[in-house]
Specification:
This protein is of the alpha/beta class. It has 2 domains: 166 residues, Glycogen Phosphorylase B (Rossmann fold, 3-Layer(aba) Sandwich); 169 residues, Glycogen Phosphorylase B (Rossmann fold, 3-Layer(aba) Sandwich), CATH 3.40.50.2000. Helix 1 crosses helix 13 and helix 7 packs across helix 11. Pfam families: Glycos_transf_1. Keywords: Transferase.
Length: 356
């Protein structure tokens, strides 16, 4: 089977693991779209690879590419990894586009075309399948869909210095982009509640992706008098440095706490990252998460309100090490069963058997 992979192969978790799995599964040929700066050469190269392929695999966040229509013209089988919706991200997450506007309608058409013209559509979980199809007015029962969860690389085990009594400071960590979906303002407010209650041996590190977008949060932190309790590091993409930092400095990982419908449906990368580092992980309630986790036995799931986040942080800070480690191991077992590369590769193998 000849496969043409359409997508940016550089620096993205899921994309890199798709490419890795395709090569390890030893399909006859795996072509990757050209990155040539010569537009003419690039178009010819991509056209020839599509013609010589049996399957066009549309990678994460790539279903706006015009080559999908070319593949459809040549009657190629199309697999689309529907990692996100352009319409939902612009209209509901970033709020940069008005619903009903010309641009919003165009984005919705792009999303719907990909869904309705693929032999197989991959979703990360059943909840996100239902959510995205609802947002885009698509009947998912008419689609051929497959669930392949997030694939998160293995991580070094965090030292958890506070819980091993090697540090008096409880270190909280949050990693992400500065968009409303994340609910970072609620995390900062929860820290204010904790400090005001007299628990001052605590620190929050925010590992972000934009100096400019972090500025409003710096202002919030300053206004709440939390300067000495918060550090913002904008080093997105510095993977090894991030790994080392979390291993040596993180006692509790914080997930997403936004109010949007999407926040209440998705499984966020940062949540599974925290579990892969073997840190206790707190996140807002999400129906997507509840497909895999039980908030009473493994991960810590709370209402997405500052007082509830604060209460859970304080509760975990007082847990005995044995109880905490049991919760961490329970979460890690679910990670290995559902979100590890080994499970991802097995799912990819099953995916292509459907086409044969």
């Amino acid at each position: 089977m000849n496969i043409f992979f359409l997508g940016d192969t550089r620096g993205a978790y899921r994309t890199e693991n798709i490419i890795k799995a395709l090569f390890e599964l030893e399909y006859k040929n795996v072509y990757i779209n050209s990155f040539s700066n010569n537009k003419f050469f690039k178009n010819i190269a991509n056209l020839l690879m599509i013609i010589n392929s049996d399957v066009v695999f549309v990678g994460p966040i790539q279903h706006n590419n015009r080559l999908i229509r070319v593949a459809k013209f040549f009657n190629k089988k199309i697999i689309t990894d529907f990692y996100m919706s352009f319409f939902d991200s612009q209209v509901n997450d970033y709020k940069q586009t008005e619903a009903g506007s010309k641009k919003a309608n165009k984005l919705k058409r792009i999303d719907k075309y990909a869904l309705e013209n693929s032999e197989i559509v991959i979703f990360l979980n059943e909840t996100e399948r239902e959510y995205f199809c609802s947002v885009l007015d698509v009947d998912y029962s008419k689609l051929n869909t497959v669930i392949i969860p997030l694939c998160i690389d293995k991580k070094p085990k965090a030292n958890l210095n506070y819980f091993h009594r090697k540090s008096e400071v409880l270190n909280l960590c949050w990693v992400g982009t500065f968009i409303p979906l994340q609910g970072l303002d609620k995390i900062i407010e929860s820290l204010k509640i904790i400090v005001d209650e007299g628990f001052t041996t605590i620190h929050l590190t925010i590992w972000g992706n934009s100096l400019m977008r972090s500025e409003p949060y710096k202002e919030i932190i300053k206004n709440k008098g939390l300067d000495k309790y918060v550090t913002i590091i904008n080093k997105w993409g510095a993977k090894e440095e991030w790994y080392t930092f979390i291993k040596e400095n993180c006692d509790i990982t914080l997930g997403i706490f936004g109010d949007s419908l999407k926040a209440k449906h998705v499984v966020a990368n940062k949540v599974i990252d925290g579990i892969a580092f073997k840190t206790p992980t707190i996140t807002g309630n999400s129906s997507g998460l509840c497909e895999f986790f039980n908030g009473e036995k493994n991960i810590f799931i709370v209402h997405n309100e500052p007082k509830d986040i604060a209460k859970k942080i304080l509760e975990i800070s007082e847990m005995d090490l044995k109880t905490l480690e049991t919760r961490i191991e329970n979460s890690y077992n679910i990670y290995e069963e559902n979100f590890s590369y080994e499970n991802f590769k097995k799912n990819m193998s099953s995916l292509f058997k459907i086409l044969n």
